[in-house]
Amino acid sequence: SIAVSGKSTVAALLERFYEPTRGSVTLDGRDIASLDPSWLRGHVIGFISQEPVLFGTSIMENIRFGKPGASDEEVFAAARAADADAFIRAFPAGYGTVVGERGAALSGGQRQRVALARALLKGPAVLLLDEATSALDAESERAVQAALERAARGRTVLLIAHRLSTVRDAHRIAVLAGGRVA
């Protein structure tokens, strides 16, 4: 849809960063206003943005941030599900590789797959992807898209995108224009 149509606002409403001025936002028929925002974000929704937030620490810790206290094996499983395990293990320090501030030591596609692994680690029922592949080159986009397709199985996925090609396999497509569903 159009660049300034409210797509990211929909994501922010679902995560309860904003409250609707009219109406309600429901998830499985339940008004999310009745749910604790930190519980909703911590357990129900896995969010991946166009520019994922990575910290200047190891890849292991960046992924584990999705579920503090997760075992190494849980982190490895999430990385495999996000198609990140192979490139992580290819680094000399593997999962101990420090990614630098904002993940500067990683490519865009690698950052997205680390962010996807972090989101998957918490086992969310809902994956919320806000332009998650729009800033990637074609090869990285294909790798991330393949990982997202596998990760989507058994989950509700809200995919926010400008390009129709990004959402072509979606079960439902809603187009926003001028802040409304067109």
From TrEMBL:
In alphabetical order, the GO MF annotations are: ABC-type oligopeptide transporter activity; ATP binding; ATP hydrolysis activity
Q: Does the keyword Hydrolase apply?
A: no
All residue ranges annotated as the ABC transporter domain in the record:
1-182
Gene Ontology biological process terms in this record: oligopeptide export from mitochondrion; potassium ion transport
UniProt organism field = Callipepla squamata (Scaled quail)
Q: How does the record classify its membrane topology?
A: Multi-pass membrane protein
PROSITE patterns tied to this protein: ABC_TRANSPORTER_1, ABC_TRANSPORTER_2
Q: What is this protein called?
A: Mitochondrial potassium channel ATP-binding subunit
Q: What UniProt keywords are attached to this protein's entry?
A: ATP-binding, Cell membrane, Ion transport, Membrane, Nucleotide-binding, Potassium, Potassium transport, Transmembrane, Transmembrane helix, Transport
Task: List the PANTHER family hit by this protein, alphabetically.
Answer: ATP-DEPENDENT PERMEASE MDL1, MITOCHONDRIAL, MITOCHONDRIAL POTASSIUM CHANNEL ATP-BINDING SUBUNIT
